Amino acid sequence: MSRTLPDELTATELDVLSPMLTREGESWTADYQGLTLRTALQPIFSISHKRIVGYEALIRAFDPDNAAVLPLHLFELPSSDAENLLLDRLCRYLHIRNYSNFQDQLNWLFLNVSPRVVSAGSRADSFFGELLKKTGLPPHRIVMEIVEQPTDDAERLRETVAYYQQLGCLTAIDDFGAGHSNFERIWNLSPDIVKLDRKLLTRATDDRKARQILNGIVSLLHQSGCLVLLEGVETHEQAMIAIDAGVDFVQGFYFRKPSIALAEIPGELTDLDGLLRDYKSKNRVTQDPTQQLTSFFEGFFRNAVDRLSQGMVMREACNTLLNHPAVSRCYLVDDSGVQIDDTLVSDAMASSLDPRFRPLESTTSADWYRQQYLRQAIAQPGYLQVTAPYLCITGAYMCVTLSLGYYHNGKLRVLCCDILANPPETSVRKG
């Protein structure tokens, strides 16, 4: 049966929604324009906790013959803004009713907010606080998901997010990484959780560079104070990518499909222990390349430092290092981080330098002090420092840098050596 509502819903008008809900055993259904609406829940897992920490509520519609109706078709039924608001509230009312009776009385319920509710601001959704009071569901167990969208009214968006936060709910930005995503919105809204769009994962599955970008996005979001959820995980490989990226939570068909059989969901098992064992096993086989590179080059590197500390000229002291095909360059830095003389480039690197980056090749008197590995080498002479792979500014290639502080004629010097993070195959083993 179709019902209409005024543009704003007040607490007393919750009574308009209540007759549209029907209890069936332990769960609730809703009637909307001849369709039966049901709640489906999809579990959300914490990788570190190895268990469910929340559920996303999804609407499922069925016609009088109990045939499924696509959500897309359901949300095309409203013919006015008032009807759109009605359907949005009805779905959330249904979900909260069902979750209030759910066996799991600890974890979060993720609820989607209609873009129309967001654009209307918190006044149009002020009934939500009354809805929580009516059902008795604590607001701290609710995560309100706001889909990113282009909007000229940033202040109204902030107002809406602030309203849910003042109620005591958590807030999440949904589909981050799609069309209109940007970090400015993260900084302005300060959500508790950011849900990454599945397209980021799809690209990371096929492209190693995209995988590195995914890892970087997760790191930036963590630094912004947000927990990160990666949705759309459908394969074992994608689960490995999610773990490696450092996301906090995962969601997707690989772990569990959405289900309207609510009573059965908490009892179903997901083998996160086995998944983490696979990751640890794989990680041991394909360890961070710095481990292999450091163990191989440390002897050559310390030998070069010994020669330099005894007064040997740079070219002769580093000759063995520079002859290795995986080594790109060596350079000396003083105790203030400023480079002494120009860089020694290996013959192999010199023959493959990209002329497009020629303005960056000369590094005489360059100041590298802001590099963490250099500051550590200056602070801890005699201790070998090694970086994770990073983009070398002098040639825009990925490298790992070894650095070690030593004394010559009473002055502290640091020898640095850049090693290709993706050296020619078997070059490290050949020596």
Explain what this protein looks like in three dimensions.
The chain is an alpha/beta fold and 431 residues long. It has two domains: 11-285, EAL domain (TIM Barrel, Alpha-Beta Barrel); 289-430, Beta-Lactamase (2-Layer Sandwich). Helices cover 37% and strands 25% of the residues. The strands form two sheets. An eight-stranded mixed β-barrel has the order 3-4-6-7-8-9-10-11, surrounded by four helices. Strand 4 (51-62) and strand 5 (68-69) form a beta hairpin. The radius of gyration is 29 Å and the shape is elongated. 36% of the residues are buried.
Topology of helices and strands:
Elements: H1 14-17, E1 21-24, E2 27-32, E3 35-46, E4 51-62, E5 68-69, H2 71-74, H3 81-100, E6 108-113, H4 115-120, H5 127-135, E7 142-147, H6 154-167, E8 170-176, H7 183-189, E9 193-196, H8 198-206, H9 208-223, E10 227-230, H10 236-245, E11 249-250, H11 272-285, H12 289-309, H13 314-317, H14 319-322, E12 327-334, E13 339-345, H15 347-350, H16 372-379, E14 385-386, E15 390-392, E16 397-408, E17 411-420, H17 427-430
Parallel strand pairs: 4-6, 6-7, 7-8, 8-9, 9-10, 10-11
Antiparallel strand pairs: 1-2, 2-3, 3-4, 3-11, 4-5, 12-13, 12-17, 14-16, 15-16, 16-17
Helix pairs in contact: 3-5, 8-9, 8-10, 10-11
